[in-house]
Design a protein that fits this description.
2 copies of one chain form a homodimer.
Chain A: E1 11-14, H1 24-33, E2 38-42, H2 43-46, H3 51-60, E3 64-69, H4 79-99, E4 101-106, H5 118-139, E5 142-145, H6 162-172, E6 180-185, H7 186-189, H8 195-201, E7 206-211, H9 235-244, E8 251-253, H10 266-279
Parallel strand pairs in A: 1-2, 1-8, 2-3, 3-4, 4-5, 5-6, 6-7, 7-8
Helix pairs in contact in A: 4-5
Chain lengths: 281, 281
């Protein structure tokens, strides 16, 4: 297993960790200055901006772009809305290409509005993903399906397990092509009784690996995620499984923490991330 | 599939639904008067009371006792605490026997205090369950393992999926004996991509079936559960799977709702439960 201590260049910062408070140029500079090897961006920071200029800033800072977050939710109540979501995602994939992002991260969405039919939502996701993989191939952008914790099945992701994501990958694109895979976030997968087997099955399909922590007394499952080491996830054990499954990409920190880390200066958050990556990840 | 409309005798009320506000005698009388066929009790209503008297009240009201809730959490930091939890559960199983409860419901507990080792927690659960099944057999009380939603993996249940519970059942007691099985609650299982297959696998092992609903905008995953029909779970579809797997026991309503249903008069809650059981379950 790679040693992350003193090696921030093996790690990346997802800008969501910094709460979207500082301008993107400042964030890029700070992430690079702290020695991280990569950055993951969000569409809210990019869309409506000069995308090429942002791409240049990142290139000049010598940062990789690990991921571009995230897909517009897929399941829709009407064909028109379903198509609109796909087109929206295609535009985002084109931006991901301009940014030089390794992956377009898909958070697929939960139930369609007004629906109780999870199976139908999952069929829409499969159909849309099939189309977006083609688009990704054309733009040289990999599609990374991110299974989300089952607590989000209703409103954010009907894709809840690694196995479900891999089933979809196997149906839609050969593993050898490396254009469709999964993004694994410890927050979403740590509880899975089939974790070790599922990660092993993901060999050759792991496009991204995210770390944060599950706080024992979580106040909000969306925006109260913990800094690595402050919660109950055995992050190092999961990283060992992921590296055993031949993942060699950057270890990306993504922490949604409205009441804590987002309120701190980004310098402090980056410093603590670097330290914790070396000690508990 | 059984028709529940006009058949409250096929249904049971878990007293947690009524918020533990009224005295147990009053609750038993009201549940029986509304025509329900059964009731599930909690240890907080029973321990330290005259258990035989409560059992008599229930018998006189002609109610079945579907379940006795719930086990003391198993995973412990020390052998002494582990043993204490098992002994505590044994006493509760003895009370379940006096009450004539069909099942002792096991909510197994999450990580041991201070631990990040889910696998160790699961091993402790397996070891304790093996011992409690023996005790249940002696007292004529079935042990119903209730897998809880993965959102509780840290603090309430390291047993998160139906498959995991069934694996444990298969290891510890033959299905034919019908002393160890699972209690399925739609709130905990609805998200599972393997749901239909897992419920089919549970044939002969389903000892209890709970209904409530997952509110789209859940404010608290513990105590903001919804009345059937107010959320996004396709309850009828899940009941169809459960009955296809030959479950013929009562359909039990269990709703933890601190800010809503627990604040209403129990007469109103019982009336709405009866109505919704007939229309959306």
């Amino acid at each position: 297993m790679r040693d992350l201590a003193g090696h921030p260049e093996l790690c990346a910062i997802n800008t969501a960790t910094l709460g979207f408070t500082a301008p993107i140029g400042e964030v890029i500079e700070a992430v690079a200055r702290h020695g991280f090897g990569g950055i993951a961006l969000w569409r809210r920071e990019v869309e409506g901006q000069d995308v090429k200029r942002i791409a240049l800033l990142i290139r000049d800072a010598k940062l990789k772009v690990t991921g571009y977050c995230r897909s517009t939710f897929i399941p829709a109540a009407t064909v028109k809305e379903f198509r609109a979501s796909i087109e929206d995602n295609k535009r985002a994939i084109a931006d991901a290409s301009v940014l030089g992002a390794e992956n377009f991260v898909m958070v697929v969405g939960g139930l369609a509005p007004g629906s109780k039919d999870l199976a139908a939502a999952r069929r829409q996701v499969a159909e849309a993903t099939a189309e977006l993989v083609v688009h990704g191939r054309e733009h040289g952008v990999k599609i990374a399906l991110e299974p989300l914790h089952p607590v989000y099945a209703a409103d954010r992701s009907c894709l809840s397990t690694i196995d479900e994501a891999l089933d979809l990958c196997d149906r839609l694109a050969p593993a050898s092509e490396k254009m469709l895979g999964v993004c694994l976030d410890v927050y979403h997968i740590w509880w899975d009784p089939a974790l070790e087997r599922a990660i092993d099955r993901a060999k050759g399909r792991i496009l991204g690996f995210h770390v944060c922590d599950w706080l024992l007394e979580t106040k909000d499952v969306l925006n109260d995620r913990g800094m690595m080491g402050d919660g109950v996830i055995d992050i190092r054990a999961i990283r060992a499984m992921v590296e055993k499954a031949r993942y060699r990409g950057l270890v990306e920190v993504e922490i949604f923490s409205a009441a804590n880390w987002w309120r701190r200066p980004i310098e402090e958050t980056l410093k603590v991330c670097k330290e914790r990556l070396g000690t508990v990840c």
